[in-house]
Write a structure and sequence with these properties.
150 residues; mainly alpha; 6 helices
């Protein structure tokens, strides 16, 4: 992904016009072809967050986002864990966005491709994992017989 971002900066540079084009293109995408991915990728991210959030609750781990923000010792490990959980979703998003750009925009914006994939896959995962973990922890405390440790 870093290579794609660097490639985008080299091809198009960084300016206010480029930034406006990026956000305009991202806002327009849900209304055009391949709009299903704006549902598919967040749903897949939710499923990954559900799996990992319940696992966190069973292990008694602190909130995923809180650990990333406040615990430098475990930050890298937890970010890596999140990218491993969402890696396939992000790769799917990169592929779908490349097809979209080729068919609809008739050009290639690698930075936009990365930004779109992260917004649709990793950001929902990041936001939902902690909520799911707290909900699962609450459930486990009230129903200890229904949540065996694996």
């Amino acid at each position: 992904m870093a290579v794609l971002i660097i490639l985008g900066i080299v091809w198009y540079g960084i300016s206010a016009d480029v930034e406006r084009r990026i956000w305009h293109n991202i806002v327009e995408r849900p209304h055009g072809p391949m709009a299903f991915r704006f549902l598919l990728q967040p749903i897949m991210a939710f499923i990954a967050a559900l799996h990992d959030g319940i696992h966190d609750a069973r292990l008694g781990r602190p909130s995923y986002f809180r650990t990333i923000v406040h615990d430098p010792g475990r930050r890298t490990q937890r970010i890596r864990e999140g990218f491993l959980s969402t890696g396939r979703i992000i790769l799917l998003g990169l592929g779908m966005d490349a097809v979209y750009q080729y068919q609809v925009l008739n050009t290639f914006f690698p930075g936009e491709m990365v930004l779109t994939a992260l917004l649709l896959a990793f950001v929902p995962y990041l936001l939902l994992r902690g909520i799911i973990s707290r909900t699962a922890r609450w459930w486990i405390l009230r129903h200890p017989q229904s949540a065996p440790l694996r």
